[in-house]
Amino acid sequence: MAATGAFAQQQRVRFPSAIPPDSPFYSEATPAPAFTTPPAQTAPPPFDPYADPASQPPALTPYGAAPAASPSGPFAQPYSAQPAGPVGAPGSMAAAPPGEPLPDGALAPRQRFLQELHLDDTQLLRFGPRGLGINDVGLDGVFAVPVLAIATPVFITPGFTYHSWNGPSSGNFRGFPDLPPNAYDAYLDTSWHPQLTSWFAADLDVRVGVYSDFSAVNGRSIRILGRGLGVFTLSPQWQVAAGIWYLDRLTVKILPAGGVIWTPNQDTRFALTFPNPKLSQRLFTIGNTDVWGYVAGEYGGGKWTIRRANGASDVMELNDLRALAGFEWFALSGMKGNAEIGYVFDRHIIYRSGTPRAHPSDTVLFRAGLTY
What we know:
Blueprint (H helix, E strand, L loop, with lengths): L1 H7 L105 E11 L8 E13 L8 E13 L15 E11 L7 E13 L9 E12 L4 E9 L7 E12 L2 E7 L3 E9 L2 E19 L5 E19 L4 E16 L11 E9 L1
Antiparallel strand pairs: 1-2, 1-14, 2-3, 3-4, 4-5, 5-6, 6-7, 7-8, 8-9, 9-10, 10-11, 11-12, 12-13, 13-14
């Protein structure tokens, strides 16, 4: 911001008055002085090393912006964080702590406490007696908490998700794959995204929550999830991310995470990252709103403590893979949203007690979200 303001300033230019032809100083051979106002220079657009375009438009979000809440995935999107840019970088909020003078004398904008409110709904249709229908409704808010004079705040995200399950019919599987009608997530997420050098950033996140149908709440209902990622910025077009997710599921405790992010221009972004890859393209702009299209992959599911039909407490896990396509929009006012459709396959219902293991039929997903 400081660089942009400095470059945008223009020197005061004195324009000469025209010399009348009857003046003794007039001469046709005297060239008229050419004064031109130097064009305003703008700093090159900043780039976000590892923002998930599901949360914000690629190559358009300045350093230091708020992280978007994760609309989907097992507990958080790994590349949704917004690291602060290097000190003095164009568009960087890290040139000075919020409220402190920037190099040009202006004050850095103060960090907002409430960054975002996010609401989303995900529907998985039930097809036939072997199907499992799911309706997930999630609400969360992102709050920024400055730590002393550190320009990159800690982000606190309390959230709540309601799960409604329909099926599958137990008569179509060996054993008794019974599910309660409802389950819930109540969590508190803490994340920090420091820009340690001009070429290296980190994405650190810990989430603690209760995941249960609330009729079987015990020590296994409390889950601690986390991720740690390092992002190496090779150029404004290329970034490499590497790290791990800690999922704390019955079958998968830890997943490797990372990949390559290629942003050839401000209209295109390819996040070839595991486990949630995404390819995005700006489609058009209406007024102050950008509309993007995308295709993506997602590792879905979760784990909850539940009470079985026979009254026993158990731990149940859902796993699936998702291929998605949709569009998202980003308004200058801060409003953004997305709508998508997907194909869900390789679905598993797993119990800690060991029986039964069920494989619901493939299905179709519909999702819509709104963030302000």
